[in-house]
Amino acid sequence: MSTYELYYWPSIQGRGEFIRLAFEDAGAAYVDVARGPDGIKLMQSMMQSGDSLRPFAPPFVKTKELILAQVANILNFLGLRLGLVSSDEEGRARALQLQLTIADFLSEIHDTHHPVSNAMYYEEQVEAAKKRSEQFVRLRMPKFLSYFEGALSQQASGSYLLGSQCSYVDLSLFQTLAGLEYAFPKAFDSLRGSIPRSLEVAERVKARPGIAAYLGSSRRLPFNQHDLFRHYPELDLNQ
Amino acid sequence: MSTYELYYWPSIQGRGEFIRLAFEDAGAAYVDVARGPDGIKLMQSMMQSGDSLRPFAPPFVKTKELILAQVANILNFLGLRLGLVSSDEEGRARALQLQLTIADFLSEIHDTHHPVSNAMYYEEQVEAAKKRSEQFVRLRMPKFLSYFEGALSQQASGSYLLGSQCSYVDLSLFQTLAGLEYAFPKAFDSLRGSIPRSLEVAERVKARPGIAAYLGSSRRLPFNQHDLFRHYPELDLNQ
Question: In angstroms, rounded to a whole number, what is the distance separating the alpha carbons of residues A192 and A67?
Answer without folding.
Answer: 39
